[in-house]
From TrEMBL:
Origin organism lineage: Eukaryota, Fungi, Dikarya, Ascomycota, Pezizomycotina
UniProt domain FAD-binding PCMH-type: residue ranges: 40-211
Protein name per Swiss-Prot or TrEMBL: FAD-binding PCMH-type domain-containing protein
This protein's record includes keyword Nucleotide-binding: no
PANTHER family: BINDING OXIDOREDUCTASE, PUTATIVE (AFU_ORTHOLOGUE AFUA_1G17690)-RELATED, FAD-BINDING PCMH-TYPE DOMAIN-CONTAINING PROTEIN
Amino acid sequence: MSVIKALELFRKELGSEIEILADQHNGAFIEYAKRWTDIGRKTPAAIVVPSSEIQIQKTVKWAVENSVPFVTKSGGHSEWSTIDSSGIIIDLSKYSSIEVNAAEQKATLRGSILAKQVSVALAEVGLFTALGNGNPIGAIPYFLNGGASVVTSCVGYGSDQILSARMIDARGNLIEVTDSEKDMADLLWALRGAGQFFGLITELTVKAYPFSALGNDQGVIWTGVFILPLERAGEVAEAMNIVANDSTHPTSGLMMIMAPPPKNDPALVISARYRGNPENAAQAYKPLYDLNPLMANGAPVPIQNTSDGHEAFNEKGTFKRFATTCLPHFNATAIPDVVQLWKTMVTECPDAITTSFNFQWDSRLAPVPAHAPSSCSSLRDTRLWQNNFIWHTDVNSRNKVDEFSDRAIAAMRGDGERREFQNATREGPIELRYRDPVKLAKLKQLKQVWDPNGVYTRQLLDG
Ligand SMILES: Cc1cc2nc3c(=O)[nH]c(=O)nc-3n(C[C@H](O)[C@H](O)[C@H](O)COP(=O)(O)OP(=O)(O)OC[C@H]3O[C@@H](n4cnc5c(N)ncnc54)[C@H](O)[C@@H]3O)c2cc1C
């Protein structure tokens, strides 16, 4: 049956109950179809907007029974919550909530709850968890496929925080995924790092921590910015080499080759974080202060506000992408070459002036949290990244900007092993994202059990 025909039946059966948008010219349809990025964005046959768990389940069941392909959308920040007219989007915007259990230090997240909403609700009772750098990111997908954050070095990755889930599987069944039974424990293991490929998670319960785990009782992260001229790239790279590799201080952040708005004057901008006693930040960043930057500031910021002020980056539309890859080491000598690549790119593609080539570091490795059994993620040996932020407005620059970014990544990687991050890409050999062959074999076997026909993507089935 065609998707249009199937939709007609769905509308007859459930149209009065569940919102179904099928007119591409309708204002609501246009709004719901928008994404953080236009890269790869497609127009679906319909957008279904359920508002309860039972409605979500009915929608999945109908789609599975009628062989209608679908994708789920939470915060809409990936390139994968989009589908062409052969299928539909299940948009969770109307299903969103959080329940914090302060006594048991955990939180239950539902539907499309966003990262900022989670961090604010936790902070109200003196708790935090591992949340990423974007306030409007869907918290559930972020946790499912990895989740790097400013607190990785004290509590592990987002996927390490997952305690249990409620999931609609590829047959449309709603199941409780807990550690209590062997089958479910294996599935929970898979959700911790590859959860976007196993089902639609309606509810995720995650671990939270008291502020004291940050190394201060105020719930703050020291947050600072250093700005230096691009011409000093060599010296800055040497200073960053010291900071990024000094594990006596819990620092993390990004060194960005960019042209910060509003003036768009090219510069090296270091967005710096210090987790612990904020008074020690000056010592940790001494190599940068010693360079007498054009600007250097920093102050303790409540953890739930550390990603504020990025509103311009959060706007929907235009061509944006994080080209993120793990680095085996910091290749300081490559930085001047990367600066040159960035300069050439903005000369050839002036519309990409807001693109930045970024080195990201965490001075400490992620620990294995005491509460979490092993997960399928293989990020534990990673604390350095190239995290280029691609942003341009002209579609004709699409391939060229990616090519420059790839060359910058290759320069930073040098001869080092290639490792990819499962929250950043679905391209290339899956072995680069799930690098432990034993874990990968188990993941593929679990995919055969839970989703052999690739209802929730063909990841782990092909290749
Ligand atoms: C500005 C920005 C900042 C970021 N910062 C970080 C960071 O600091 N750390 C980090 O690790 N990552 C970061 N990311 C990556 C981000 O965490 C992932 O792309 C995340 O999957 C986006 O989730 P979303 O709900 O916003 O996107 P969506 O596009 O809505 O969903 C992402 C994927 O998950 C699927 N999905 C959606 N809802 C569900 C569900 N309930 N159950 C199962 N699958 C579902 C979708 O189909 C899609 O494939 C960042 C991305 C951006 C754009």
